[in-house]
Amino acid sequence: MIHPINATVERAQRALPPGLHEVPVGMHRRLAHVQPGLTPLAVRAQHLSLVSTALTQAGVEHFVVPGTEDTSSAIGVRDEQRGRVAQALRSLFSRSPGYIQRKVPVLRTGEPLQLGSREASWQGLETVDVLRAVWFQADPSGHLVYGTEYGCDIEFWREEDGRLLPPRTNRGASYLPVHGEMTLVSPHRFSRLAPPQTDAPQNQRRWGRKPQRSGLPTRQEFVCTGADEITFPIDVVYTWVDSDDPAWQRRRAEASGDVFHEESASAGRYINRDELLYSMRSLHMYAPWVRHIFLVTDDQVPHWLNSEGEGITVVSHREIFRETSRLPVFNSHAISAQLHRVPGLSEHFIHFNDDVFVGRPITPHEFFLPNGASKHYPDTVRIPMGPILPEDLPHEVARKNVRALLEGRFGRTIIDAMKHTPVPLRRSVLEEMEREFAEVFRATAAARFRSRTDIDVGTCMYPYYAYFTGRGVPDTIPYAYLHLSMVQLSKKLDRLLKRRDAAVFCVNDSFTTEDDVADQEALIHPFFEAYFPLPSPYETSAATR
């Protein structure tokens, strides 16, 4: 877990070297190295490289192992090398203070950490099958400490009947030949948090890459593309509006005569608290495998956005709507029904609203299967049964319209709504849906505000259509939903910040009025800054207020 810490902790009580702080972690205080800008993937790679370099310098043969965890790493050494490993690591810890944790082979609850520089910490090593090297890393903001889950494990492999046997399960092999070819790989190679790797021989041929000339040693048997790996690119598409823009406000006022329900034009639907900035930070921190970000707007650009930066493209509504005569459009149903038209978009992509965030390190497997199928996340909230009623909210109307269409097409009735999560989508499936339901797609695109002819394409129609046609599957995801008008919001935000256990979360503000904004801003902006303190490459140096 990533733990919040007190930013005022100083190096007082003890004479610590520069760059080291003593910070509270759970019930203990730990030595932590203070470094700016460290993401989870970078911390993992740093610790893996530290251990590999120390073993190389000590002449200990070793190989990186494809472990079963994505934030920690693993290195295999022969069982008879225990003494030399201990000596090399103890020397490393004397230069770079950290801890060891014994895993025998499964971590016991409450397994203590011991300072790696102490001789006593290495006693009884002959009974340990797996040893974890841990360095705590703290961000200078005082809001993040990367802890034991980012450690590097040293596995002691034993020789038996001409084979090397691992002390525990890994993602690569149940055993290895005693002698085998070695190769070099990136420190990110065996983490699914990283972008798709290209150092497997077949991928080198496919992309014309030269073999890896530097990196960390591993066994050649591990360098392959497994059936459980996601190798296709995944983009993210954001939809965003700047409600503070006077030109946008004029356009909205001129078009507001089309509103059929007050919620359709609610100010809360458009209030800008710079959520997008923090949502993009969450991607940078916790989903570095995203290939490209597309920001779909009504010819608007956030004041903080580095629009010339690598990895992001701003897309105007004029580029994705076929019939531009109805623009401007203020209907999220209309906009989401056009996202598959984004130029340069990959087949697999994820739609993010700007009020949705990634809450912890997350892999693409949370959104897609390795065979390309997309996932969706049914809620316990039901779509109201029966015909459309005058009192139905616009999103209920759009879902009822979808239900009628799918009943006619598949003879099956949809019941569950979807959670307010990022929405995994496939461009080809959306194109197929538009061809099959051309008239309703056209009517939705033509509705400037939410209307009674709308369909909810992304969060209702697509999940079920993909499921009924064998290209989507239901799943669950660790998730939190916070509404800015909920009771004890401050306590719920504090709890989410402390635990950081939600893979994704939504901070929603529908029905917020202009009178609520100041109080909510005083609460939510410090939360965002504490949760996502690391600037992303998508923002300028003067991004935050």
TrEMBL record:
Residues 419-467 form the Stealth protein CR3 conserved region domain. InterPro entries: Stealth, Stealth_CR1, Stealth_CR2, Stealth_CR3, Stealth_CR4. Residues 232-257 form the Stealth protein CR1 conserved region domain. Residues 494-544 form the Stealth protein CR4 conserved region domain. It comes from the Bacteria. Residues 194-216 are annotated as: Disordered. Keywords: Exopolysaccharide synthesis, Transferase. The keyword Transferase applies. Residues 269-374 form the Stealth protein CR2 conserved region domain. Belongs to the stealth family. This is Stealth family protein. It comes from Streptomyces microflavus.
